[in-house]
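Q: Got a minute? One more chain.
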Amino acid sequence: MKHVRRMVLSVVAVAALLICFQNQAQAQYTQPTVAPSDALAGVHYDYRWELYGGFAYSHFNAGAQLIQGSNLGGFDIQGARWFTPRWGVAANARGYYGTSGVQPNPYGIKGPFVSENMILVGPEYRGPSNQHVSMTLHALFGTAHGGFDSALQDQNGNPVPPSALGLFNNQWTFGSAIGGSIDLNRSPRLAFRISPDATLTNFGSAGIHEQFALSVGLVYRLGKGLHK
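A: Always. Here it is, folded:
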């Protein structure tokens, strides 16, 4: 869990630096008084709902003994219901897809297709925020499905089990994502999000596997009128 704590601390540190930079820049420069036109002047964190969609990346190990990891790409979508400006609950679906290295084998198989899909829910906490930047931490838990047997055949077209290549077998298992996000506001409702996570799964029998994941995309807020 050291990597999880390190990732969470990194998110906090980056957000704090961004906010400090914005505050310092505002303190050093006073904009001339003009008619209200700042697109971010109306940013307030009192929306009940947030919808997020983005592109995702994960560094994934498709087998307990595999030396070579997989660099997978995919999607990350999330809906969050905020009950106060600080606390909310999120539902998240994400999928990662790509190819994986395998153990040396007599079947001539290299770089088979693998996938990981996760369905997660959990609490979110909004940390330091201003009209430019907002930081959120989350701890999401649920289930994950791994697919590791796509087009696994030998030279004669006979199926090859994933275990013969050092891959996990297809299965549903525990899944979790511990991390957060940094939202760069573009308007009161729209923000650009960067979201790093440590994803935890339990494929195979080797215990919890920790992987790095990252997504970038857009957040849209709606349902204004949340009570503080």
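A: Helices lie at 2-28.
Q: Perfect, thanks.
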